[in-house]
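Hi R.,

As promised, here are both runs. First protein below:
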Amino acid sequence: TARKHSFVFFTETTFVFIFAILPLIFLAVAEEIAISGFLTGVSVVPLLWHLYVLWIIILWLVFAYIWTDYYLDIWVVTNTHMIDIDQHGLFNRKISTSRPNLIQDITIEVPGILATFIDYGNIHMQTAGQNREFVLKNVAKPYKLKEIIVNEQSAMTEKPASP
């Protein structure tokens, strides 16, 4: 089994944490203004805290959506099939399968220096089936996964035909 690299998940969720922390700065400034007496008789800070809690709930839902997409995108390589389960949103899933002996070409794309250092990339597989190309995006250890696929492909083609 293979998944997207955890760095990809980290980069997709970083903005959620930034958007959770930035309003705290605004709330600290609002409390300081309220304490200094600039807004006498007006209690805006409790309302702002309630809005912040609502904002955190929305960000939590966004984080759950990103995590679900990350966790349910999976590629399975067995000795008889390759299965690509691609989650699109919460209730939309695309599952593609291919046999290793139908693979005609495997290309690995490592998009940049950071991807080279932390070892992730895209694998493009051309097949002879109806789905002409399988693309495994941002997969961890693409060279190792390619080696596994090629080994399964050669093991399947070297197998003697059963009568």
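And here is the second one, sequence first, then its structure tokens:
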Amino acid sequence: MELRTVNTFLHIAELHSFSRTARQLGYSQSAVSSQIAQLEAELGAPLFDRVGKTIALTPQGRQFFEYAQNILRMAENARNVMLSLIHI
């Protein structure tokens, strides 16, 4: 599981849009779709319901959302600790 994919997942969940996420993150829409397809395959569950242009988290997506937030928070904390050690 890549951090950028987790970040993409969180952006889609917050923006309710693959295309807005792609624009905001500077990716193509196909790259965003590919990242989510890869994440869904890795987790073995659909994360989003796609009905027309409406995007909503599935029950599995809602459960993963908290984990995704924690994953990125922990990665940021680890980076900050390591950077502070360099400056001691």
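A quick note on the second one: The chain has four helices and two strands. Let me know what you think.

Best,
J.
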